[in-house]
Every structure is written in C-alpha cells, then in structure tokens.
Amino acid sequence: MSNLIKKDGYSYTFDASACSTCQARCCTGESGYIFVTKEEIKNISKLLDMKKDDFIKKYLFKEGFKHSIKERKVGESYECAFYNSESNGCSIYEARPLQCITFPFWDYFKNRVDELKLECPGVVDVK
Ligand code: SF4
Ligand code: SF4
Question: What's the total number of domains in the chain?
Fold first, then answer.
C-alpha cells in the first residue's frame, strides 16, 4: 500500500511504503554526515542511558563546529553506527536526528531530484 507524502515547495512526492523493501539506502551506502544538534545529543544519550560525554566519545566526531554520527565500514560501503541490519531499521528511531526525520525533503535535493531518485526508491517525480 502506498503512503504518499507531499511537501510544499518540492516537485516530488515520497512513498514511505518503499522503506520496507529498500534496505535503508539513506542510512547506508556512501559515506556522509549525519549531523546532530546539542538537543539531539541530549535526547539520544538519554535514550541510550549513557552519559552525554561518553555518548559523544563513542558515537560522534566533530566536523567544524558540528557533531556528526560515526559510520561503520561494511565492505566497500558505509553505514550509520545506529543502523541495525538485522531489523533493517534505526536503533535510536525515537530520538533520531531531524536530518533523518526530514529526509528526503532536504533543500539540497530541491533541484537535484535525479540524484535523489538514485538514492531513494520512494521518491516519485511529479513534474
Ligand atoms: S532511502 Fe528512501 S525508501 Fe529507502 S529507507 Fe530511506 S527514505 Fe525509505
Ligand atoms: S540515525 Fe537512524 S535514521 Fe539516521 S542515519 Fe542513522 S540509522 Fe539512519
């Protein structure tokens, strides 16, 4: 069953039912930044029942003034430290960063729909 999501200002829709069969391409594949804000760091540490500093040390790295989630290298590919391949899901789903919640509706992709379609099979061009 499709579950089409639209957003003002975007020329594509997103069919969330595609996630169940796509093996989380947005959490795996090429290496990329998964930025977390201070508030998100607090929320994820709490969810994992970890001290904030321990969480930062174990799971994050600094990129300029921001923090990004570490990735694991799997063969020639990468995956987010919180991607669970057994359940094909996010192990911090309830506290996942806004960057993950808002995908695939990112400003960056507004004029790069073809690039986005290669990454996300749920994206449907409606132009
Ligand atoms: S790449 Fe797209 S279809 Fe696949 S899990 Fe991510 S959002 Fe869902
Ligand atoms: S935090 Fe969760 S949703 Fe975001 S990239 Fe990592 S596994 Fe995917």
Answer: 1
In-domain check, residue 123: no
This prediction's pTM: 0.93
Please tell me whether residue 11 adopts helix, strand or coil conformation.
Answer: coil
Residues 104 and 106: their CA atoms lie apart, in Å, by 6
Residue 126: pLDDT band with limits 50, 70, 90: confident
Q: Is residue 125 part of a domain?
A: no
Give a yes or no: residue 122 inside a domain: no
Which ligand 2 atom sits nearest the alpha carbon of residue 84?
Answer: 7
| Cβ proximity of 24 and 82 under 8 Å | no
* Assigned domain for 124 exists: no
Cα–Cα distance list, 40 to 1, 46, 94, 108, 120 (Å):
32, 10, 11, 22, 24
Ligand nearest to the CA of 25: 1
- Look up the domain containing 75 and give its range: 4-116
pLDDT in tens, 68-98: 999 999 999 999 999 999 999 999 999 999 9
- Distance from Cα 94 to the centre of ligand 2, integer Å: 11
